Automatic annotation (TrEMBL):
Listed name of the protein: Universal stress protein
Gene3D superfamilies, per database record: HUPs
Superkingdom assignment: Archaea
CDD domains, alphabetized: USP-like
A Pfam family matched in the record: Usp
Recorded family membership: Belongs to the universal stress protein A family.
Protein source organism: Natronorubrum daqingense
InterPro entries according to UniProt: Rossmann-like_a/b/a_fold (IPR014729), Universal_stress_UspA (IPR006015), UspA (IPR006016)
């Protein structure tokens, strides 16, 4: 299988694991010279909070999720590393429940691989992935790489 498009989907909990996520993206995308789609997925309430925090003027601007993602610090940090690696990329933003939105985005960009992050689980939490990771692993139209963070969460 030739990799042409790698989707890195991040959400509100991924800032702490951005180094691990970007390492996974570079490991997969660089050898194949694949295009990386950096995507931030917002729930409706997260999106409204970010619009306020980033001081978008909703009255004067026609605000698109892609524009909001471009100004989000997690995407800015990831973009800088992608540029340092001379990889082609695009930035996407989408609104919806995290798991289904990632699956829909993977389909719409015709992703050959999806990379998502998650928490390292405590022994009692290892029986199940988080609901977002589980949804993506089970429903994505392509292989998924799951990147664990280094902290525990029950």
């Amino acid at each position: 299988m030739t990799l042409e498009t790698v989707l890195l989907a991040v959400g509100p909990g991924d800032a702490d694991r951005s180094d691990e996520l970007i390492d996974a993206v570079v490991d997969v995308a660089a050898p194949a010279d694949a295009t990386v789609v950096l995507a931030h997925v917002f729930t409706k309430s997260e999106y409204d909070d970010v619009l306020s925090r980033l001081e978008f003027d909703r009255e004067a601007e026609d605000v698109e999720p892609d524009d909001v993602a471009r100004r989000h610090q997690t995407i800015i940090d990831l973009r800088e590393t992608i540029e340092d690696q001379d990889l082609e990329y695009e930035i996407r933003g989408t609104i919806g429940e995290h798991g289904p939105a990632i699956v829909d985005l993977a389909t719409s960009v015709d992703a050959d691989r999806v990379i998502v992050g998650g928490r390292r689980r405590s022994p009692t939490g290892k029986a199940v992935f988080g609901s977002t990771a589980q949804e993506v692993l089970l429903s994505a139209p392509c292989p998924v790489t799951f990147v664990r963070g280094d902290y525990f969460d029950d």
